Amino acid sequence: MELFSHFILDTGPSLDEGRTLTHENIRIMLSAAFSAPYLMYQILAFSALHLSCTTPAQAEYHREEATTLQTQALLLLNDTLVETTSDNCVPTLIFTSLLGLHALAEAASVRGTDGTDGVLDRFVTYLNLHRGVRAVTQRSWKVLSQSNLQSMLRCAERSLDPTMSQLQECETMVADHLNSLLNDADISADSEKACRDAVSSLQLIFQSESSAGEAPRDEQKPVGLVWAWPILTSGIFSDLLMKRRPEALIILCHYAVLLHRRRHIWLVGSMGRMLIETITGFLGTYWRHWLDWPIQMLEES
Question: Cys-Cys with 283: which of 27, 128, 198, 287 at CB 3.0–4.6 Å?
Fold first, then answer.
């Protein structure tokens, strides 16, 4: 009950950048959890992980608790979920989203003690898990768009519409800069497409940031769209990161600026800084020109 109430009062609201996590949205999430025990266990696991960050004296206890609860969630998922249907697509989508954010929080909690490979591998693990949201939505989009999540999904869809607003000048330059990098990249056609798609998705996230900043106070703002970029990237792009391809690492370094802007959020912490410092150190002076903007953003903060 402590973990359950902590999720409602603290953990859930802590994810809500736009302050649009209404009582109705909380009700939808909890209603789904009551019908899907695997989601309830993941909610409790995520709450325990949050407590491990906010109560240092009991950090180890809550972290072990989070691991135990998440293991139970995954066991229940494997036992009950054969395929995504109209009955389980909502809890499955929420579960996959929380599972990805849980992985990000765990990755961010390690303070860079395992070197370049450790930081990047942990982030790619998170990225692959969170991309599972895309698989669920692609299989069940028609049902989800008519479910009680439809208002949240439509809000996110509008915010990622490239015709809705304009990028700030500096962010237009960033997108042009990254596309210029890819013009001369010595990579396969599939790899180039994966990187260009990642840049296009990143541009949409930058756009949603600008739109949220300009929106009136009483207008609904997008919830956590920074998490949309890992969902929108492809498996090929993840493979390029695992292979330490400079072009993919440079794109990730620019996304890390968005994470660094959210360093006050417990599940992000210093992950943005760790990625920027790790990637710039790994690539060295030859690629420094392509990393000027992330480095500048880090120094200015």
Answer: 287
